[in-house]
Amino acid sequence: MSTDWVSDRLAEAAPIGLVELDAVAALQHRVDTKYLITWQQLDQVADDLTATHRRLVIGGISAFAYRSSYLDTSGRVCFHAHRQGRRLRFKVRTRCYDDTGLCRFEIKLKDGRSGTDKHARTVPATQFATVPDLALAFLSEVLATRYGMAAPTGLAPRLLVSHHRHTLAARSGACRVTLDSGLRFTAGPVTARLRDGLVLVETKSARGRSDADSLLRRVGARPVNVSKYCAGMALTHPDLPDQPWRPLLRRYFTGPHPTGDGAMAGHHGQPGRPAASYS
Prior knowledge:
Elements: H1 3-9, E1 15-16, H2 18-25, E2 29-38, H3 39-52, E3 53-56, E4 64-72, H4 77-83, E5 90-97, E6 102-110, E7 116-122, H5 135-146, E8 156-170, E9 175-187, E10 190-194, E11 198-205, H6 211-218, H7 228-236, H8 246-252, E12 253-258
Parallel strand pairs: 1-3
Antiparallel strand pairs: 2-7, 2-11, 3-8, 4-5, 4-8, 5-6, 6-7, 8-9, 9-10, 9-11, 10-12
Helix pairs in contact: 3-6
């Protein structure tokens, strides 16, 4: 799906700035619900979405380029914990917001009740696609406080994920809606991506029941239970098990394919970005 088409289709929504968005819908603790929808389904709900939501605009930009470098151990403890549905599970990544220059180290945990807790610290952009200096101490603190467990050792970059994101904020109630297009996964010399004509939509709300969820279900969209990290790892690492997501991966994604340019694929040709040995 063309990112420009999504931008045009959401252009009628009134703008909201980042400061106001964080004030009305920070949602560091929330329920995330994901949908994989076609452009036809998005077209059917776009008018209602733009009437009931505002779109994030920063410096005249509403389609933001994201790059995320996910960390895991050599044994893929984070991947397997999510695949097995363990109650105490987490993901860690560095995320670069290319249009603003912001780079953060982020930890996402499950609270045991289908909720997500997010913790983040700003890091230098030069530490993207590395294990940032503060990562291990911060992760140890969060895991000890929330789960009473020690941080795993041997974390390293395992997957690069890139996409463009539009963000909407509900006019009524605390809810965000993100729409990701051009979703691409890279691990070493292998890449995979979301099929053309699809967009990944995610609602983020206190209880997982928002007006946006109702609109999406009205046009036949149904929640899907897979994270970008798990999908990308399963697609780019044929040695890893892909259950319980195999039917979803075959229906909505394509790959793996050779990148032809190694681990730097997905860095959009930006100079000064450190390369990682994604494995």
